[in-house]
Structures are given as C-alpha cells and as structure tokens.
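Here is one chain, start to finish.
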Amino acid sequence: MQNLNEVENMGLGGAAAFVEAIALQPTIYWKNAAQQGLAFTLNPKLLYRGIGAALVNEMGQMALQYGMTGYIKRLVAGDSTIPMTFPEELASAVAGGAFVAPFASAVECVMIQQQHHGRSLLATPVHIVRKFGAKAIFRGLAPCAIRDGIYVGCLLGVTPVFQKYLMEEHKFGLSAAGLGASLAGGVIVGVATCPFDAMSTVMKGDIERVKFGGFIDTAKKQAAGGIPKLFGGVFWRTVNITGTIYLANEARVRLGPIMFPDKY
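Its structure:
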C-alpha cells in the first residue's frame, strides 16, 4: 500500500467498500438484530433500511482505513526498499483502524438509529444531536475503536502477509491464497471482535441510556449475560467480516493495478 499516496489508497478503499457494502448489507442487519434481540427477517425493505448510511459508513470508513494505514506504512518504511516486517505491517494497520474509529462510530450510530426508528439519513443525526447532544453521536466509541483496531490489523496487516506466505511457501495461486487468508482472518477477527462489536451496537441502540451506561457499565452487563450476550450475532458478524476481508483484499490486489497502473 505504501506504493500509493493517501488519495489513491482512499480511492481504492472506497471502490472496494461499495461492492462489499451492497453485497453484505443483509448480514449487518441480521448481526445487529441478533445482538439487540430483534426478530430474524428476509424483508428487503428492512434488510436495506439505512443502506444510505451503510454506504457512507463502509465507503468512508474503508477509504479512510486504506488511506491512514497506507500513510502510516509509508512513515514506518520511509525511503527504504527493504520490505516491512510483519510486526510493522500489523502495528501500522491496527493504528490505522483505531484512528478512523470516530468516523465509523458516528455513522454506525446513525445507521442503527435509522433501523430502529426509520428516519431519513439526514433527519436521524439532527434528531440525535438535538435530543441528546453532539456527544451522543459518538456513543460506543471505545469498544468501536478496539474492534476496528483488531479488524483493520487483520484486513491490511495479517491477510496480505498470510496470502503472500501461502503463495510463496505453499505455491497457492493468487485467488486460492486470497480466499484462504480471508477465511482464516475472517473467522479469527469475527470471533475476537464480537464482544466489542456487541457492546458498540447495544450502546448505540440504547442512545437514551435506559439499559446501558458507559463502557464499564456495558461491559459488566454484557459479561453478566454470558456467552449469548458477549457473542450475540457472532455467526453473521463472522460471515460479514470474512466476506469483507475477501472482497477488500481482492480489490487491493486486482483493482489497484487497474485504477493506478503506473504504480504497479
């Protein structure tokens, strides 16, 4: 990624996110529904309610994650032609994910409130700020930052390295290596981040703070609920994360040379 500048990395991330957001939006709804105790549905009007916020979220989030991670990688690598070490790749990606979390948290709050109340994309944040104050738009930021640090660490740190390893050491083809790396990364990240994702989701769903207070209060109440609360929606989250990592990694590998042929 350090071969592209920040704007190019953001363009690549945005293009990848558009495809995965449309394809995987139902898994987001099912995951959120499971975490909040809502009924399962196949109604497309419900599954794609809030798709505007979802597209803003996914495209903006991944564009910023690609841009920030690429920038940090270039800072770490400098002018050196020596490939970055795995710890350097991983640390750069984790930092990139955590730095972008405020944007992701705010847009996810709007999307979840839309799914609850059906207000428009513009009316929802206005309602939140007017009724609960500007700070409420960032509700659930701490667990979101932890979640996104782990997620982007895998997406842009672990997956490319593991894909390269499969290709060089086990002679996997490009597609097979990408699929294998995405499946392994998706399962690990889907499970590892689920408690933090669940905390972020229930805090945003309960913006009135009727059931959940801050980070510590929410963590205690989720833990008291045992596995069902800590890992609510883990199946759909794992499906979504695996699909996202696969599509984003394919875009990085395949769209990059098409969009920026002079950089490859």
